[in-house]
Amino acid sequence: MRGSILSLVVAAAICSLSSTQVQAQAPDPNTIAPSQDPTRTANGLAMTPPMGWNSWNKFGCDVNERVVRHVADAMVNSGMRDAGYVYVVIDDCWQGPRDADGFITVDPVRFPSGMKALADYVHSKGLKFGLYSDAGRMTCAGRPGSQGHEYQDAITYARWGVDYLKYDWCYSGVRNAEEAYALMADALRSTGRPIVFSMCEWGNNRPWLWASKIGNLWRTTGDIADIWEGKKGNNWGVLNLADMNEPLWPYAGPGHWNDPDMLEVGNGGMTNIEYRSHFSLWAMMAAPLIAGNDIATMDETTRDILMNTEVIAVNQDAAGVQGRRVRDEGDLEVWVKALAGGARAVLLFNRGPEAANIEVTWDELGYPPSLRANVRDLWAHRDLAPARDRFGASVPSHGVVMLKIGA
Ligand code: GLA
Fold it and tell me: Right CATH number for 324-406 from 3.30.565.10, 3.40.630.190, 1.10.540.10, 2.60.40.1180?
């Protein structure tokens, strides 16, 4: 008996040693195991990347309760809610001053009915409700921040029915980021209400190294601009954000996601081909899909991009693996995301000025060359002819071909 227990212990030790060794090697995108260890998630929420809408990219500080109600209605009528976009998040500029006891109040001009009534309305539509605050004295737009009022604010949010908090980093002075975010996470937890915690310190303090224990998503970059490439003021184009976020793929997994900022799809600054690429890249990177356009007035093309259920399914795949670039030939790239069940999502991506043929090989997918695999085009919504060894397609300038390839 003793001997058999001992041999079990030795066997277990050898097992755990070899699995540690495997994990310590450079991660291979084709074999990386999804992070299923529940102790690595902060609160058991956001087991797939959060999906929803946020007011900032379209409305900035010009947000009010009428806009939010319209958007909530449109989330239902357009089918966005049923496609998975459930969080309706009000970004900066909802706050009024603190009251005599230090509790936060609501801007009475923009939100005359109060936040509880608005949250109730959003909930009545089968949606979830989110707010924004900041770890510093003030928010980026100069409204009161949560510093020194973390528990008071968490209690207020829970009373209103908040389900999601985006927590920014302006005016945070010399605060330690990990401590500041952990403090707010503790405050939220103390309310007993499940609240997704979105950390927004722009990647300044390398949150991917510490934030998975604290919250559910962390910004890895500065703010997005509605442009394809380059910088506009302090904000970055889609290509720049994708390049910053891509190498961080080993840090994402169920409950904890890299966030390269919210979507600009439908806001008018890029072509529809570019918006489709933006959406595909975010889906491949298991990024939060937070729409930033006016849902109430979006056109059909925008709708078709945001509501491509096959691309959304890649983003929401249960394995929670962040896809990565497996080939970089200047303007021509191949990205791969391992899916639960063994298939691969594949992005053939052309950053260049002309259409080009791009091929993916089975070797890049971790498949034997002889494997006869099914190929589905996720934007054309079509099954293509099964293939062996490799698959190639013509990809438009600034465009993608997005595929699911599997046995
Ligand atoms: C920062 C954030 C943005 C937005 C604004 C609001 O810039 O990164 O996403 O929340 O603040 O002021």
Answer: 2.60.40.1180
Active site residue 223: yes
Angle at 283 between CA 207 and CA 252, to 5 degrees: 30
Question: For residue 141, which atom of ligand 1 is closest to its CA?
Answer: 12
Tell me the pLDDT tens digit for each residue of 304-349: 999 999 999 999 999 999 999 999 999 999 999 999 999 999 999 9
Task: Give the tens place of pLDDT for each residue, 255-303.
Answer: 999 999 999 999 999 999 999 999 999 999 999 999 999 999 999 999 9
Question: What is the CATH code for 19-315?
Answer: 3.20.20.70
Q: What is the mean pLDDT of residues 238-256?
A: 98
Domain with CATH 3.20.20.70 in the chain: 19-315
Query: With bands split at pLDDT 50, 70 and 90, how would you rate the model's confidence at 40?
Result: low
- Sign, CA torsion 249/251/255/257: negative
d(CA 359, CA 347): 10
Kindly state if the Cβ of 168 falls inside 6 Å of ligand 1: yes
What is the whole-number distance in angstroms between the Cα of residue 324 and the centre of ligand 1?
A: 27
Location of each CATH 2.60.40.1180 domain in the chain = 324-406
Apex 232 CA angle, 226 and 237, nearest 5: 45
From 107, 223, 261, 317, active-site residue: 223
Choose, from 107, 168, 261, 294, the residue flagged as catalytic.
168
Residue 124 neighbours by CB under 8 Å, 6+ apart: none
Identify the band that residue 389 occupies on the pLDDT scale cut at 50, 70 and 90: very high
Which residue's CA is minimally distant from atom 3 of ligand 1? 223
